[in-house]
């Protein structure tokens, strides 16, 4: 017989401390069978109704059993105290019973700070941020004083400067000890996330005690606010104190240099990591690989990856994203396969990098295979993975797949909204694009310039002139977005194709920047089509100034002159093309054969394998000549 069972049989019926020790043992070994045995014994001797032992048993079932087991134990406790209710509440959240937990919370006779913290943290974990903030307000109305843990949750979900400042103010009013290093570090991190470096400095300067996390958080806050040089200065200042840099210090500094595209300073930081013995850390190596890759030193990044002592997901992710950034799709897929062979589970960032490459280079069937793997790993509802998935399907014309993925997203960030809007616009689904945009404006997210560019593109495709003009006219007032080239290009093209050339010229006259080649191209095509030769000549002249070697303005003018029988002007345009133009408008074609993608442009094979392909073609042509087919 197991020693544990012998001990159970030897128990005296009134030995509460002995049962408590046995429950401790069950907690350490996490055996549901042993928990059931102890629970049965408690029922036999009538201790299951006792508050202390009942709570202990309830906690064990919440951690190792089922929701039904936990609720049975909870219901049999006669004198439930606040601890009983809190354990059951946490257990229901752990079992995914959000609705039941909320009902239980409503029934609680007394709610302490632990009860409220459970509700707030659970709703944050489920992604219901607004509800979490609502529970915090109710907590204050109930006169329950928030704890440090309460504010640590709130600081992690602060989404705007105003909200962050309100949380900080509430901490001051609650009498929190802001000189506490943990709370101070959390505040610095929050302000860094919100790009409020000056407020982060304010907190840093009031802290009585600092640790390495305080310095790291401050440097990261400077980095988030775009103050890279200031962050590097703070590192120099930190070196004058007793605090020693750790792997997060070095990786943050290398990331700052990477953002600044300052290879020289990045190499100095990397050299420093070698000196202090932090080079072998994969977090540092990953940051260094990103630095070399973004500074066009991919060969150094590859060498660093090869010299790594061991691989982990972070290191492989950096190398995969570096290869994807440089268009080395086959290397991306090879690294992914090697990563899988090393039993390294791909993360959301891994799949995002691979899908981004797939959307540009891989055939649709291989992209679908990667999608299947995403579903198998349970990542399809993650916005980081879903956005490149939607982009991939949109580019190959399978927009319905992209719409389905978007509909199944549990939490949508602005990138996912923008991706589906651009995808629908790209595939000519103008009305659906406007519907999605209207749905977006009903959320807490604020559209950005990419959102508006996608919507204007959809209006252009659908010929929705009035709607396009309304959105364009209100984008600065309603969303604070200053129109850029892409917005002007869409609205000018929309007006031009609708024959409203005067309005299109009026928009160009009001531009905050000089119109580019594509904007004048829209005017040229439409004015030529609607017979406004004077405007066409003016637009063509602007295009020739911007891109003197482009043949497009000469070709369009030649066609316009030909339609009017102005043959001398036609000859003049054709001579100009021969003497002045070096480039013509060309497209490219891609074909996927097994694991390779070949791209053809202007009769030239861009991807590798071109020499072999032409040798085979020559051989086939020679054989066809011999056999009389040519």
Describe the structure.
The longest helix has 17 residues, at 610-626. The protein is globular. A hairpin with a 2-residue loop joins strand 1 (588-593) and strand 2. The chain contains 36 helices and 3 strands. The chain is mainly alpha-helical and 630 residues long. The chain has a 3-stranded antiparallel beta sheet, with no helix packed on it. 39% of the residues are buried. It has a domain at 588-630.
Number of strands: 3
Strand arrangement, major sheet: 1-2-3
Q: What overall geometry do the principal axes of the alpha carbons give?
A: globular
Percent range of helical residues = over 70%
Number of helices: 36
Strand content: under 5%
Oligomer: single chain
Low-pLDDT runs:
none
* Termini separation: 91 Å
Cα gyration radius (Å):
33 Å
What class would the helix/strand composition place it in? mainly alpha
Write the layout of secondary structure elements.
Layout: H1 3-9, H2 16-29, H3 32-45, H4 51-64, H5 67-76, H6 82-94, H7 98-107, H8 113-125, H9 129-141, H10 148-157, H11 161-173, H12 181-193, H13 197-206, H14 212-224, H15 228-238, H16 247-260, H17 263-275, H18 282-294, H19 298-306, H20 313-325, H21 329-341, H22 348-360, H23 364-376, H24 383-395, H25 399-407, H26 414-426, H27 430-441, H28 449-462, H29 465-479, H30 485-497, H31 501-509, H32 517-529, H33 533-546, H34 552-563, H35 567-580, E1 588-593, E2 596-601, E3 604-605, H36 610-626
Antiparallel strand pairs: 1-2, 2-3
Helix pairs in contact: 2-3, 2-4, 3-4, 4-5, 4-6, 5-6, 6-7, 6-8, 8-9, 8-10, 10-12, 12-13, 12-14, 13-14, 14-15, 14-16, 15-16, 16-17, 16-18, 17-18, 18-19, 18-20, 19-20, 20-21, 20-22, 21-22, 22-23, 22-24, 23-24, 24-25, 24-26, 25-26, 26-27, 26-28, 27-28, 28-29, 28-30, 29-30, 30-31, 30-32, ...
């Amino acid at each position: 017989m197991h020693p544990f069972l012998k001990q159970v049989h030897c128990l005296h019926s009134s030995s509460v401390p002995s049962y408590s020790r046995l429950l401790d043992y069950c907690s350490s070994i996490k055996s549901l069978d042993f928990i059931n045995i102890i629970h049965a014994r408690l029922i036999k001797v009538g201790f299951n109704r006792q508050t202390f032992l009942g709570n202990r048993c309830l906690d064990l079932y919440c951690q190792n059993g089922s929701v039904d087991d936990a609720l049975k134990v909870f219901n049999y406790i006669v004198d439930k105290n606040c601890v009983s209710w809190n354990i059951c509440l946490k257990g229901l959240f752990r079992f995914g019973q959000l609705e039941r937990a909320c009902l239980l919370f409503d029934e609680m006779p007394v709610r302490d700070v632990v009860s409220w913290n459970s509700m707030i943290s659970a709703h944050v974990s489920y992604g219901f941020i607004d509800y979490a903030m609502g529970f915090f307000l109710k907590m204050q109305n109930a006169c329950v004083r928030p704890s440090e843990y309460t504010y640590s949750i709130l600081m992690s979900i602060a989404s705007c400067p105003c909200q962050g400042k309100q949380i900080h103010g509430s901490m001051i009013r609650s009498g929190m000890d802001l000189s506490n290093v943990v709370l101070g570090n959390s505040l610095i991190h929050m302000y860094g996330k919100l790009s409020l470096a000056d407020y982060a400095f304010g907190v840093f300067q009031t802290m009585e005690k600092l640790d390495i996390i305080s310095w790291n958080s401050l440097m990261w806050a400077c980095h988030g606010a775009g103050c890279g040089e200031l962050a590097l200065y703070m590192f120099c200042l930190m070196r004058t104190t007793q605090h020693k840099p750790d792997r997060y210090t070095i990786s943050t500094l290398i990331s700052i240099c990477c953002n600044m595209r300052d290879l020289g300073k990045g190499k100095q930081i990397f050299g420093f990591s070698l000196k202090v013995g932090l080079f072998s850390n994969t977090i540092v190596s990953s940051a260094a690989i990103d630095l070399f890759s973004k500074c066009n030193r991919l060969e150094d990044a590859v060498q660093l990856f090869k010299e790594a002592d061991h691989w982990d997901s972070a290191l492989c992710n950096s190398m995969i994203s570096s290869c994807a950034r440089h268009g080395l799709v086959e290397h991306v897929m090879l690294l992914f396969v090697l990563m899988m062979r090393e039993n390294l589970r791909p993360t959301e960032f891994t799949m995002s990098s691979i899908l981004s490459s797939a959307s540009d280079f891989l055939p649709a069937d291989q992209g679908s295979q990667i999608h299947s793997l995403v579903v198998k790993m349970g990542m399809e509802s993650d916005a980081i993975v879903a956005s490149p998935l939607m982009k991939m399907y949109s580019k190959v014309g399978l927009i319905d797949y992209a719409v389905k993925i978007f509909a199944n997203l549990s939490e949508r960030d602005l990138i996912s909204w923008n991706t589906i809007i651009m995808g629908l616009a790209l595939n000519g689904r103008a009305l659906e694009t406007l519907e999605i945009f209207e749905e977006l404006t009903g959320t807490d997210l604020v559209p950005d310039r990419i959102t508006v560019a996608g919507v204007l593109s959809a209006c252009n495709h659908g010929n929705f002139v009035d709607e396009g003009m309304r959105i364009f006219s209100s984008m600065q007032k309603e969303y604070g977005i200053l129109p850029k080239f892409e917005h002007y290009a869409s609205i000018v093209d929309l007006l031009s194709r609708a024959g409203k050339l005067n309005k299109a010229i009026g928009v160009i006259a009001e531009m905050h920047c000089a119109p580019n080649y594509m904007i004048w191209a829209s005017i040229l095509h439409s004015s030529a089509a609607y017979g406004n030769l004077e405007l066409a000549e003016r637009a063509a002249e602007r295009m020739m100034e911007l891109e003197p070697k482009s043949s497009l303005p000469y070709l369009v003018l030649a066609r316009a002159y030909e339609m009017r029988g102005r043959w001398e002007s036609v000859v003049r345009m054709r001579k100009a093309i021969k003497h002045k133009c070096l480039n013509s408008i060309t497209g490219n074609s891609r074909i996927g054969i097994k694991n390779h993608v070949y791209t053809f442009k202007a009769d030239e094979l861009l991807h590798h394998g071109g020499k072999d392909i032409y040798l085979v073609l020559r051989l086939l042509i020679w054989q066809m000549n011999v056999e009389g087919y040519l």
